[in-house]
Amino acid sequence: MIKQSSPVKHRFHQGVVLNILIIPFAATLFAITVGLGWVSGKDLILFGAFSFAVALGVTVGYHRMLTHYSFHANPVVKLILLILGVWSLEGTPLTWATTHLEHHANADKDADPHSPMKSLWHAHAGWLFNKRRIDPNIYAQKQLNDPIVMFVTKTAGFWAILGLVLPFLLGGWSGFIWAGLVRVFVVHHVTWSVNSLGHSFGTQDFNKGHDLSTNNWLIGVLALGEGWHNNHHAFPKSAFHGLKWYQIDISGMFIRLLGFLHLANDICVVPKQAIMAKQMAASKKGVEAHM
Ligand SMILES: [Zn+2]
Ligand SMILES: [Zn+2]
Question: What does the pLDDT read at residue 134?
């Protein structure tokens, strides 16, 4: 039976969005100015470890596994990846997947929730303040019927708090600032750069004329492979966003490792012929556009 879920009218309360934007920003400003004098090696290690784990929660967990079903993970791995995704404070698994699928369905058209067609700021974080209808019944039926996804969605508040309490338990107040708040700030802006810069600056190997998605090496590195965003819009289900040897894709390498350890299966790899065919279509379109 297909479950129905009532649409979420507002992504967050406006005040919550402001807090999610301003508190990590203020903490980061404090940490890199006043706080830099007393930062310890332990703080930096905690910051690096939490940032990397949560970024993987977003890229491998929320994006490639949850939203696009690019691979199937062992249930325990799936649970851990989704909880790490919640730690990003970018929404529950269900709201994140719904918004992102809405983006793919309407990329750079009027109904795109975060296209830079409106403005770069809108695509980056301005869209979070928009009152809009998030309807999983339209975009995320599969996720609605996934018990692990729904369990983490319903208990997301608990996991989100745990993601801030743990850095405190491990590193005290400085651990909380660096591995909690500064980490939230960094992961937020790297993720949002894929939506803003990754639809504005870079090159297009595919989808010319369809959307504005680009391949951008800087975001490719910073966002653990998500910056090969033009490749991703051309082949959304692919577990690997880096399609050329020099397109470093750390999330793709992590999925490969999960597969090697038998913790992931049904890993989606795009056949070379399909890539070549799309690339030829794109260059033909480019030639036509110059005629
Ligand atoms: Zn996109
Ligand atoms: Zn996607």
Answer: 86
In a domain, 1, yes or no: no
Alpha helices in 176-249 (DSSP H): 183-196, 217-222, 229-234
Q: What is the pLDDT of residues 160-199, one digit of tens each?
A: 999 999 999 999 999 999 999 999 999 999 999 999 999 9
* 215 DSSP 8-state letter: B
Quote the ligand 1 centre to 29 CA distance (angstroms): 29
Residue 150 Cα distances to 86, 203, 215, 246, angstroms: 13, 37, 33, 37
Ligand 2 centre to CA of 238 (Å) is 10
Tens of pLDDT, residues 139-154: 999 999 999 999 999 9
Which ligand places an atom closest to the C-alpha of 211?
1
Q: Would you say residue 2 lies in a domain?
A: no
pLDDT at 174: 92
Q: 190: domain range?
A: 8-290
Q: How many residues does the chain have?
A: 291
> Which ligand is nearest to the Cα of residue 202, counting in written order?
1
pLDDT higher than 60, residue 226: yes
How far, in Å, is the centroid of ligand 1 from the Cα of 100? 8
Ligand 2 centroid, distance to 272 Cα (angstroms): 20
- The total number of structural domains in the chain stands at 1
- Say if 125 falls within a structural domain: yes
Beta bridge partners of 8: 134
Q: What distance in angstroms lies between residue 115's CA and the mean position of ligand 1's atoms?
A: 8
Model pLDDT, residue 153: 97
Q: Which two tokens stand for residue 177?
A: 């600032």
